[in-house]
Amino acid sequence: RVVSVDTLVSSGGLSGGEVDAALGPAPFAQGPELHSAVVYEDEAVFVVRRGHPTVKRTLSRAAFSRLRHVDIHLALGRGGVGHKTAEDAFAAHGLSRDIAVTVPTFTAAAMVVASSDFVAGMPRRMVERLRASAPLVMVTAPLPTMYVRMSLVWHDRTHLDPVARRFREAVIVALRDRTARGARRRKPA
Which of 48, 109, 131, 147 meets the CB 3.0–4.6 Å disulfide criterion with 120? Predict the structure, then answer.
């Protein structure tokens, strides 16, 4: 069973017994009684709808700040580790966002962008899958590309359990295998 971040948090996190493992940015993997394995690295990209009236392939600094943005708050209506990393990068490069709407998932962000003139940032792997059902175009942003290491995280309560261990190994192999095909290796954000 796959659950949302909200369910993970509201059920007591990984120590609560409801969730056996979670996938998230590497800094999420830190804490007492937590174990983790870096599974893959993903590139953060920006998307607009195909046929956007003002954005073609590159977002200028002025366009980045002028356009309305879709913000994504995955956990309990607020940004998490990845969100903070992105916000810090925007600030470091003198960029500001005019937030038009905040949504709880990357899929929701893609659907909003596909039917508006808004822009959103999200993981490349997600965009590559969503483009099959939504008219999205990846655009170059006016800041260095951000890379995020994603980790599989689990609690000490399942660390030695042989079934849980086999499950984690299967997830790691499946995600690493997908990453190995055409992935780019860069310094993580």
Answer: 109
* Tokens linked to 146: 């951000």
Compute the 3-state secondary structure of the chain and give helix, strand, coil in percent, each to the nearest 5.
40, 30, 35
Q: Name residue 59's amino acid.
A: L
Closest CA to 97 of 107, 106, 86: 86
Residue 159, CA distances (Å) to 14, 112, 122 in order: 11, 40, 31
Alpha-carbon span 162 to 61, nearest angstrom: 51
Nearest to 115 by CA among 148, 70, 62: 70
Give bridge partners of residue 68 from the DSSP assignment: 98
Cα Rg of the chain, angstroms: 17
- What number is the average pLDDT over the span 87-98? 93
> How far out from the chain centre does Cα 138 lie?
15
- For every residue of 45-103, DSSP letters joined together read EEEEETT-SS-SSB--HHHHHHSEEEEE--BTTB--HHHHHHHHHHHHTT---EEEEEE
Rounded to two decimals, the pTM is 0.82
